[in-house]
Amino acid sequence: MNLTIYGEQLNSRLLIGSALYPSPDIMKKAILASGAQVVTLSLKRQNPQAQSGQQIWQYIQDIVKLNNGFLLPNTAGCKTAKEAFTLAQMSRELFQTSWLKLEVIGDDYNLQPDPLELLKATEMLINDGFNVLPYCTDDLVLCQRLYDLGCEVIMPWASPIGTGKGLMNPYNLATIRARLPKATLILDAGIGKPSDACLAMEMGYDGILLNSAVALADDPILMAKAFSDALLSGEQAFRAGIMQQRQTAQPSTPTLDTPFWQQSEPDRT
Amino acid sequence: MNVRINGEVHMLQNIAKSKKSKVNLTDALEQYLTSKQQTMSFAVAVNSDFISKGQYSSTLLNDGDSIDVLFPIYGG
């Protein structure tokens, strides 16, 4: 069940966030239970007296050491290409990785990515040597443009960040999969339950990036395992080839030589 | 000299030998960060441009400059 991201082979198709967990200890246990090797994190201002950020950073470093993992810094909160570019450069120096989950938000209400600034930022970052994983809407042409710019990985949303609404528009997502067969497609944001993730994998998506669905569960560690199983199930189903739907019922048990049927035929006379 | 660090105005002291010389970024960070924070992982931008660690001492600040000092934190 390998996933390749910018040349790195991963054992899990799940990428996971490090935010919103009840405690750093539960975060660590949940991420390890998920099997995910890619952990997202961010950069923020910190009050000189605050220590919590450093503690989280230590936990995340422990996690990626234990699971031979990779850091995936994001540009959460950026609204322009310039902001995202500067934050990406800061992340690259600090986290020593050229991978970047690129977020450029265009609307505060639903945290919808700004497609124009996203394309601009992607071009700037690729020219500066970054491996960009853009978080985008489920717009086919936007995904095509991102792929044309050189993004090997594209991450359309299932639904707005943190809503847990699942796959808002399966038709759009299926079309992106069909039209970009060579792109590595990771569904990012809006996943609420394991069956959402399983459905995306059954559609041929290469992976899932989620955070809230695990972190906000009553038992994040158990939910992390549930997602791990769901991804595995969905990916196997896709490879196995799902049957075509049919309009009418077709008996699965042979009808030939069925006993008694003549006797039970109702008398309609 | 006043600069804005992480959104708040701070008065920086010029500890350079010549009072005419400007405060550099290394001195500004030493004045702003606690001794423990100076040993932690952080990255810096001045006026929204990234400044690499190797450029701190050669980056001279002007009155009114805006400095961002960012630390790792959880994220989704």
TrEMBL record, chain A:
Superkingdom of the source species: Bacteria
Positions that bind 1-deoxy-D-xylulose 5-phosphate? G162, A189, G190, N211, S212
According to its UniProt record, the EC number is 2.8.1.10
PANTHER family documented for this protein: THIAZOLE SYNTHASE
Q: How does it assemble?
A: Homotetramer. Forms heterodimers with either ThiH or ThiS.
Please give the organism.
Thalassotalea castellviae
Q: Which catalytic residues are annotated?
A: K101 (schiff-base intermediate with dxp)
Q: Which HAMAP family match?
A: ThiG
Region labeled Disordered — which residues? 244-269
Record family assignment = Belongs to the ThiG family.
Q: Does the keyword Transferase apply?
A: yes
Which principal EC class is assigned to this enzyme? transferase
- InterPro entries assigned: Aldolase_TIM, Thiazole_synthase_ThiG, ThiG
**What is the reaction catalyzed?**
[ThiS sulfur-carrier protein]-C-terminal-Gly-aminoethanethioate + 2-iminoacetate + 1-deoxy-D-xylulose 5-phosphate = [ThiS sulfur-carrier protein]-C-terminal Gly-Gly + 2-[(2R,5Z)-2-carboxy-4-methylthiazol-5(2H)-ylidene]ethyl phosphate + 2 H2O + H(+)
Job description of the protein: Catalyzes the rearrangement of 1-deoxy-D-xylulose 5-phosphate (DXP) to produce the thiazole phosphate moiety of thiamine. Sulfur is provided by the thiocarboxylate moiety of the carrier protein ThiS. In vitro, sulfur can be provided by H(2)S.
- Write out the annotated subcellular location: Cytoplasm
Ordered alphabetically, the record's keywords are: Cytoplasm, Schiff base, Thiamine biosynthesis, Transferase
- What CDD domains does this protein's entry cite? ThiG
Question: Which is one GO molecular function term here?
Answer: thiazole synthase activity
Protein name from the UniProt record = Thiazole synthase
| Domain (Thiazole synthase ThiG) ranges | 4-254
The pathway that the record names for this protein is: Cofactor biosynthesis; thiamine diphosphate biosynthesis
Automatic annotation (TrEMBL), chain B:
Q: Which species does this protein come from?
A: Thalassotalea castellviae
Q: Which domain of life is it from?
A: Bacteria
Encoded by which gene? thiS
Protein known as:
Sulfur carrier protein ThiS
- Classification via Pfam families: ThiS
